[in-house]
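Handout, section B. The chain below has 150 residues.
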Amino acid sequence: MTTMQELREIPLRDAGIRKTRSVCGYCGVGCSVDILSKDNRIIGIQPAMDGPANLGALCVKGQFAYDYVHHPDRLTRPLVRSADGQLHEASWDDALHAAAEGFRKVAEQYGRQAIYAIASGRTPTEADYLVQKFIRVGYGTHNVDNCSRA
């Protein structure tokens, strides 16, 4: 027997649109979302009607701010500033080494309180958790903030 939910999704499938359940990454609430994609590109985001945290509602960011995913200026490879002062593409290993060396130099010269982190509003909550854990455990400071302001 076909359910009402399955009947509502037939036009999406017929149009080649795929619906993928996920969790909104803009804040720590954990709203359930259905990401609509076609030809491997996000074309829309809908609130999940059965999401336990949001019960079918989403804020403006959660529902409409997804254009950054496919933006042509989005970085796809790490950039490292070299001696000439310019940013150059680098391997992940080189970029991580440069970042670690930068943290080491600052902590050595100015102390651990000179180290801080600002987590992104466009990363999953789990990534934000790791950022704060890295700063608090790795450097013994609580200088962590987040740019997610509602």
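Note. The chain has a mean pLDDT of 88. Compare this with the example in section A.
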